[in-house]
Amino acid sequence: MTKRDLLSMEDLTRSDVELILDTAESFLPIMHRDIKKVPTLRGRTIVNFFYEASTRTSTSFDLAAKRLSADTIALKKSGSSVEKGESLKDTVLTLTAYSPDIIVIRHPSVGACRLVARQTTASVINAGDGKYQHPTQCLLDLFTLRQTFGRSLEGMRIALVGDIMHSRVARSNIQGFQMMGMQVTVIGPPTLIPRGIESLGVRVEHDLSTLASHDVIYVLRLQRERMAEGANFVSTLREYAAVWGIGKNRLRRGQKVMHPGPINRGVELTAQVADDPDTLILQQVESGLATRMAILYRTIVGYSDAAGEETS
Ligand code: NCD
User: Fold this and answer.
1) Which of 11, 66, 169, 223 has most Cβ atoms within 10 angstroms of its Cβ?
2) Phi-psi region of 201 (alpha: psi -120 to 50; beta: other; left: phi over 0)
3) How high is the pLDDT of residue 83?
4) pLDDT, tens digit (0-9, with 9 covering 90-100), for 88-127
5) Is the separation of the CB atoms in 106 and 58 below 8 Å?
6) Contacts of 273 by beta carbon, 8 Å cutoff, 6+ apart
7) What are 23-26's contacts with CB under 8 Å, separation 24+?
């Protein structure tokens, strides 16, 4: 069997996505047992390699692998030989010597995961590369939407609001949302929306006047770490918050708010919205676990229905 990587949403067909979401659903009951572990991936080895900061993605991949009884190796940039100057290639060759089944990797450079995929016999899963792709975030968001609104997302309207320019979540999610038949609008200041993004089939708006017409508002963080020094993407945080911050007053009743985290409270989202139990933000975190279990499982066992019978 040739190895299967997950580097971008383009690696998946709609039926692959549906299979992952169905598999994630089949794993849900495990979360409510006293013993939250199944032997499904016993004897398999999963490396979680994070060159960039992460809370949600790294913990959920780690826990997902453990819940499936796989052996895990967690490596972070700090504390590894990367700090001594070891190259990405040598680090990957070293890790490959342990014959892992999967390497999950997050890296600040666009395309780093593709490079790694060429150098290892393990399947590679992209946990975020620069501002390019974050396919597993997209899948957990689709899972959250499906759990909230039902199996068909066809025709739903979703607005991505904020820093689209520097967001790998936006790039993956536009593809994934459209794949499931959703209508996507991107909203933000012109400096934070990539030129020509209309060619992806999204609507582009530079004010919040149509906000109420969307079923879901997906808020994105200002990615200050990716903004080139000296470049003026926003004037001040206070002004950004006043013009673009999503507060209760800007939301229609029943509208759902999503955010991939980490939140800049008081910047793109008010604390009141962030803490509102009606938002889907913590549900997204919860979905991350089941969805990443499903992704690990499918990557190893295969993307056919027959392969998915024994998940528990
Ligand atoms: C996102 C990321 O790292 O791209 N976060 C995440 O994976 N939960 C979004 C962000 O950092 O703003």
Assistant:
1) 169
2) left
3) 82
4) 999 999 999 999 999 999 999 999 999 999 999 999 999 9
5) yes
6) 246, 247, 248, 251, 257, 279
7) 23/293, 23/294, 23/297, 23/298, 23/308, 23/311, 24/139, 24/143, 24/287, 24/290, 24/291, 24/293, 24/294, 25/143, 25/147, 25/290, 26/308, 26/311, 26/312
For ligand 1, is residue 214 a contact (CB within 6 Å)? no
The full set of domain ranges for the chain reads 9-134+287-301, 135-284
Q: Mean pLDDT throughout 292-308?
A: 88
Work out the mean pLDDT of the chain and round it to a whole number: 94
131 lines ligand 1 (CB under 6 A): no
At 235 the pLDDT is 81
Ligand 1 in reach of 189 Cβ (< 6 A): no
Is residue 8 within 8 Å of 139, Cβ to Cβ? no
- Distance (angstroms) between ligand 1 centre and the Cα of 289 equals 15
Rounded distance, CA 82 to CA 63, Å?
24
Task: Say yes or no: domain 9-134+287-301 is CATH 3.40.50.1370.
Answer: yes
Interval between CA 39 and ligand 1 midpoint (Å): 30
Task: State in Å: Cα 138 to ligand 1 middle.
Answer: 11
Helix 88-96 and helix 112-119, axial crossing angle in degrees, nearest 10 = 40
Q: Residue 157 and residue 185: Cα distance in Å, rounded?
A: 8
Q: In this structure, what are the phi and psi dihedrals at residue 93, rounded to the nearest 5 degrees? A: -65, -40
- Within 10 A of 10 (CB to CB), how many other CB atoms are there? 11
Residues 222, 191: contact at Cβ < 8 Å? no
pLDDT > 60? residue 311: no
**310 has pLDDT over 60:** no
Whether the domain at 9-134+287-301 and the domain at 135-284 fall into the same CATH topology: yes
Residue nearest to atom 7 of ligand 1 (CA): 57
